[in-house]
Design goal:
Elements (H helix, E strand, L loop, with lengths): L1 H9 L8 H38 L4 H35 L4 H16 L3 H16 L7 E6 L2 E10 L3 E5 L5 E5 L3 E6 L5 E10 L4 H15 L5 H4 L5 E8 L3 E10 L4 H18 L20
Antiparallel strand pairs: 1-2, 1-5, 2-3, 3-4, 6-8, 7-8
Helix pairs in contact: 1-3, 2-3, 6-8
């Protein structure tokens, strides 16, 4: 790029504001502008198309590859757009007769001076580069990002070298600088574990409850959507806690990535319905603390 700019500067330019000068400026600016616009439009269309395919992909190896491809395309398109518009500015300045050598030299000196104040920008860019190279998460992944500003949970909608955009579960779009990310938890990789705690009365036979749940799970593994969400049949781990009024029986199931919470919600619904049908005793509802009586008037 610098060689191209130097070549433009070194070319003998016509007299300023003459017809040939305007023609030279129009060609230089027009071609550069067309290239920058083409890179921007094509890049954005490719990014939108790749993200739509990634969102429609299944939770399998192919879907994982689609999300990875969408991430790489987004990073590449963003970088090329910055280069194209910078080249437009450089060519335009050269066509106007602005000496680029002193400009770049002064920019280098200013860059050193501003480097101390731009440490966060450098940190964000380097962190984003390593996030992309290591594949910590991709566009479409469901993640928890522990950042300097707190925990941000949701779906990755965009990843650039500087920031990551997260669509949270309530619809809010959050932008997190890559350099502030301390811990990344990705729910979309490998597998998940759905955990459901079933509370029953203290005088209820836990072995009877276990048999009821085991029979229910034998049916669930063949029903949709459990047949695609579950990696293996749910298991009854047994009584994990005793309180004053209830015993807690824990159920665990390995799920496909990104379906852990959906499995937990539907499991609770099915377990509640089945235990009610079988007459499993529920723990009594403890009354709240009595309100203080009003002082006599």
């Amino acid at each position: 790029m610098l060689l191209a700019a130097s070549a433009v500067t070194a070319t003998p330019s016509p007299d300023a504001f003459s017809g040939a000068w305007w023609t030279h400026l129009a060609w230089s600016f027009g071609v550069s502008l067309v290239i920058a616009l083409a890179v921007t439009v094509v890049g954005r269309r490719l990014v939108r198309h790749a993200r739509r395919r990634a969102q429609a992909g299944a939770e399998d190896v192919e879907g994982r590859a689609l999300r990875r491809r969408a991430t790489v395309i987004g990073l590449t398109a963003g970088t090329l757009q910055v280069i194209a518009w910078f080249f437009l500015v450089t060519v335009t300045l050269a066509a106007l007769g602005v000496p680029l050598g002193p400009l770049f030299a002064s920019a280098g000196i200013a860059g050193v001076a501003l480097g101390f104040g731009a440490q966060s920008l450098v940190r964000d860019t380097l962190a984003g580069l390593f996030i992309a190279l290591e594949g910590q998460f991709d566009v479409g992944d469901n993640v928890d990002l522990q950042s300097d500003g707190g925990l941000v949970s949701g779906t990755v909608e965009g990843l650039s070298l500087r920031v990551t955009t997260i669509r949270q579960f309530d619809g809010m779009l959050s932008t997190v600088p890559n350099g502030s990310i301390q811990v990344t938890s990705n729910r979309t990789r490998g597998w998940g574990r759905a955990i459901v705690d079933v509370r029953v009365a203290l005088d209820e036979d836990p072995e009877r409850v276990r048999k009821i749940l085991e029979h229910l799970f034998d049916e669930l593994v063949e029903d949709a959507p459990f047949d695609t969400w579950l990696r293996e049949r749910p298991k009854v781990l047994g009584v994990t806690q005793l309180t004053d009024v209830a015993q807690v029986i824990r159920v665990a199931a390995e799920t496909q990535p990104n379906h852990r919470m959906d499995t937990e919600r539907l499991l609770r619904e099915r377990i509640s319905t089945r235990t009610t049908e079988k007459g499993v005793k529920s723990p009594p509802v403890t009354a709240g603390a009595p309100r203080p009586s009003a002082p006599p008037s």
